[in-house]
Hints:
The chain has 194 residues and is α/β, with parallel strands linked by helices. The chain has helices at residues 5-17, 21-36, 39-42, 60-68, 143-154, and strands spanning 46-48, 72-78, 86-91, 97-99, 105-107, 114-115, 122-125, 129-130, 136-137, 159-163, 184-186, 191-193. Helix content is 28%, strand content 22%. Helix 2 runs parallel beside helix 4.
Amino acid sequence: MQQSRQDIRSHVRTLRQKLTPQFQQSAAEQLVKQCVTSQAFIDSQHIALYLSNDGELDTAPLIQALWLQGKSLYLPVLHPFAKGQLLFLHYTPQSTMVDNCFGIAEPKLDQRAIIPAQQLDLICTPLVAFDSQCQRLGMGGGYYDRTLSRWFATGVGAKPLGLAHDCQRVDNIPIEPWDIPLPQIITPTHIWQR
């Protein structure tokens, strides 16, 4: 019998939260090696990432490595007026950070730092679970599905890419009509292609 989306979210989040700090650090270091040698990152200058939360694979070492390579990085910010939408703001070591309504740090809103999503080269998405077909299951808010819908419909704009722990892979994600599959998901030990 197929697990419900909420059961999968609950199970995988529990697995992820049980990972030790040492395991998390090692996985983050392995992720850097995977990403900086992948063609998607090599070919991209303007990259949207996210700050890890709730046991997600730590993106801080990857952010540092990409800054050292001279890449321009951006973080998602909850749109203050368009409910369920994301903005992407330029992110530097000097960025002023604030916590959003979910308690996740994001750059303080500044119109001068916004980049339209279609001008990004790569959008790295968080996810709760994924399958070998690169179907992504998020937290359920639909923020990234809405953000990626234009790319999915046209193939134009920023390429999406998922980042996850290996333990977040499940046999099958129950798909809904609004779900946007990813062309690629990178874990510390594997690169999954759609």
